[in-house]
Design brief:
The complex is a heterodimer of chains A (311) and B (379). Chain A is of the alpha/beta class and 311 residues long. Chain A folds into 2 domains: 2-222, P-loop containing nucleotide triphosphate hydrolases (Rossmann fold), CATH 3.40.50.300; 226-294, 2-Layer Sandwich (Alpha-Beta Plaits). Chain A contains 11 helices and 14 strands. The longest helix of chain A has 16 residues, at 167-182. Chain B has 17 helices and 4 strands. In chain B, 68% of the residues lie in helices and 6% in strands. Chain B has 2 domains: 2-41 and 172-371, no CATH class; 53-164, D-Maltodextrin-Binding Protein, domain 2. The chains are: A alpha/beta (311), B mainly alpha (379). The interface between A and B is medium-sized, with 34 and 27 residues.
Chain lengths: 311, 379
């Protein structure tokens, strides 16, 4: 069953096109990643989905209903974790979660149970009575998440929830997202950290300039591109002739050499590394460390757009 | 709804900076007023008759008509404004030096005054002498130009004095400094602007992340706004009432004794403050800091025009541009307190409260039109 369907969504800010005929289909039970650099339209798409931002064209259906500001029943089943921490400085951790949960759940007893569960879920048991300004950045992000998910929604939209978070908190957050998904929650996760998206998302849409460039599982996305392997070698003073010869080797389709680091992109094949090392030995070229990497989402982005994900 | 009210109340009263501007600052300002007017407050009966001013009179030897007229002028004031004693010049100067009298009037061909300090009492003595001189010169001028009209001129002067004497219908004698405290209470009421601005910014998706988070919940926006308004209005009413309590019971300033009336005006004052804040908070995309700056402007400037910094300002405006006093909420509020405490003029007070009610309605309607917007052009 489709949880979210976005069809031909267009959003303009004056002459700037923020969303350019965006199409998305998100199934129930997925962790759907929206991956793209800053300014690619991820947050705009989410704000349109939440019916707080006007758009010029297109349609958004959530849980099989046209999403409008007064779709209170749909909203009741959505949890949102905003990119910016949105909590009250004057209220404690417990009070903040209770307040936001109370905007969805009226029954006080049930709410108290949910608040307690949310506190345990994000690991803030020892900070119940603390005010947000006394929490570290990571704990604050966890509180932000707890406020968005305490009411146990069917769909959770997380807009870059791990920005400026320490590795420990980041792992805790990512583990939490996987656990929520295991419990049956559909999650839309935006990020410009490809590692995170790769780690948790079941399906990914790569966005740039308000458009979806490619969608699929991470394996599907990687199989779409030419790069099957990237070999990086530290080598001193390579000549133009040697670089040209390496470009002629089987499966090599791109050679770059900058600051004494040689980077070769090769299509998927066995024994690529052996062949390259053999060539270096044969030509008596001195080399240092050697790395061989399988393609990443950054490679996918690079090949599709011609630029790095974090440019 | 109770859930919304509870948490809006908690987060507002715990916001110390906002509460300071809404209540702490006016209390400090009131304390400064109280200390500044300490001399005129005297034994704490501020608003009652002022103490008479002890004055020496030194008569020059030569008998003249001018001397007699001046002495009779002083005699009229004796016991009411002045406590006079005829002395020899040497004795009077010693008394002045010893602070036994505040000034020495010289009764002779040219009336004169000697003072040793520059305080309120000395200013009053000088004002009395100036008034006397001005009036006698005027009568002399009329007598020279139109001797037949001298009787009418004297009569006119007496009538002027009768009509300008400050007497309250309610039987109270007014200390002019009380207007500062009325302006202060009006200013405090307007300080609800800060509460309104902050709450409004926190409920709009295009103004804050908190606003965005609230907007995506299934709670109806009108419910959120009404809950906020109710809480802020209640807090502001408590603030204004606390200040009037401090003024009345701590500073011992008589606000007229009509507690119900004062509370009623406080009610309208709190409403205009919060609604003005709601309007400022919702009307454009300025930052919170900038809006708070507007809040300062919208409280201090009307307060200034209502006589918060310069007591006579409201009277000057009434003289030259009365319409400002009709539309300035601080002046309207201050005037309402005046009507209640001094004039006992319920008709004028009702008119003022009606003006405030209309202003509230306009502010709330305008801000609701903006805030109720459910989708924003940009966030």
């Amino acid at each position: 069953m489709s949880m979210v369907t976005i069809t031909n969504l267009v959003k303009r800010y004056g002459s700037l096109v923020a969303l350019d005929h965006l199409n998305l289909e998100i199934e129930e039970g997925e962790i759907y990643g929206l991956l793209g650099p800053n300014g690619s339209g991820k947050t705009t798409a989410i704000n349109c989905m939440l019916a707080i931002l006007k758009y010029d064209k297109g349609s958004i259906r959530i849980m099989d209903k046209e999403m409008k500001p007064d779709c209170y029943e749909v909203k009741r089943n959505i949890g949102v974790v905003m990119q910016n921490v949105a909590v009250f400085e004057q209220m404690s951790v417990w009070e903040n979660i209770d307040y936001f949960c109370g905007l969805y759940i009226r029954d006080k007893k049930r709410r108290q149970e949910l608040v307690e569960e949310a506190i345990q879920f994000v690991g803030l048991e020892d900070f119940r009575k603390m005010r947000p300004k006394k929490l570290s950045g990571g704990l604050l992000r966890r509180l932000n998440i707890a406020c968005g998910i305490a009411h146990k929604p069917k769909l959770i939209i997380m807009d870059e929830p791990t920005v400026a978070v320490d590795p420990q908190s980041r792992n805790k957050i990512l583990e939490g997202i996987l656990e929520l998904n295991r419990q049956g929650t559909t999650i839309i996760y935006t990020s410009h950290y490809m590692e995170e998206v790769e780690q948790i998302c079941t399906r990914i849409a790569i966005m740039d300039h308000g458009q979806v460039l490619a969608t699929g599982t991470k394996e599907e996305l990687k199989s779409m591109i030419k790069t099957g392997e990237t070999i990086t070698i530290e080598a001193v003073a390579l000549s133009e002739e040697q670089l040209a010869q390496m470009g002629e080797l089987p499966h090599v389709f791109q050679v770059t050499y900058e600051e004494q680091v040689l980077k070769l992109r090769l299509s998927g094949a066995k024994h690529n590394l052996v062949r390259i090392l053999h060539y270096l030995e044969e030509k008596d070229i001195a080399f240092g460390r050697v790395f061989s990497e399988l393609p990443t989402l950054n490679d996918v982005f690079l090949e599709i757009t011609g630029k790095e994900l974090r440019d | 709804m109770l859930h919304l009210i509870k948490y809006q109340f908690l987060q507002t009263v715990r916001e110390w900076s906002v509460m300071f501007w809404a209540l702490g600052f006016p209390v400090i300002l009131g304390s400064l007023f109280y200390m500044s007017f300490g001399t005129s407050i005297g034994n704490g009966n501020f608003g009652e008759d002022m103490e008479v001013i002890r004055t020496a009179i030194v008569e020059e030897d030569k008998q003249t008509d001018d001397k007699e007229v001046f002495l009779s002028f002083l005699e009229e004031l004796d016991g009411d404004v002045l406590e006079t004693e005829v002395m020899e010049e040497e004795e009077a100067l010693l008394a002045l030096k010893a602070d036994e009298v505040e000034g020495i009037f010289y009764a002779g061909k040219e009336p004169g005054l000697t003072v040793a300090k520059s305080d309120l009492q000395q200013s009053i003595l000088k004002a009395l002498l100036d008034t006397y001189k001005k009036n006698t010169e005027m009568i002399k001028a009329v007598g020279t130009a139109h001797p037949e009209a001298i009787g009418e001129a004297v009569k006119a002067l007496e009538e002027w004095r009768e009509t300008t004497e400050e007497l309250s219908v309610g039987g109270r004698t007014l200390n002019p400094n009380i207007s500062y405290f009325f302006a202060l209470i009006a200013y405090t009421a307007l300080s609800g602007v800060y509460l309104g601005i902050k709450a409004c910014c926190e409920s709009q998706a295009n103004l804050s992340a908190l606003g965005a988070r609230r907007c995506v919940t299934p709670t109806h926006k009108l419910k959120l706004i009404l809950g906020n308004f109710f809480v802020l209005f209640t807090i502001q009413f408590i603030n204004v009432t606390a200040l009037t309590g401090i003024v009345q019971f701590v500073f011992q300033i008589d606000l007229g004794g009509n507690a119900g009336g004062i509370l009623f005006i406080n009610l309208f004052g709190s409403m205009i403050g919060v609604s003005l804040g709601t309007l400022v908070g919702s009307i454009s995309r300025f930052s919170l800091g900038m809006k708070m700056g507007f809040g300062v402007l919208f409280t201090l400037f009307p307060g200034f025009l209502a006589g918060l910094m310069f007591g006579n300002m409201k009277n000057l405006i009434e003289q030259y541009c009365p319409v400002i006093n009709r539309i300035n909420p601080a002046a309207v509020l201050s005037d309402s307190y005046y009507c209640m405490a001094v004039y006992n003029d319920t008709e004028r007070m009702a008119r003022n409260l009606l003006i405030l009610a209309v202003m509230c309605a306009v502010c709330v309607a305008a801000s609701f039109i903006v805030v109720r917007r459910e989708r924003y052009d940009s966030i």
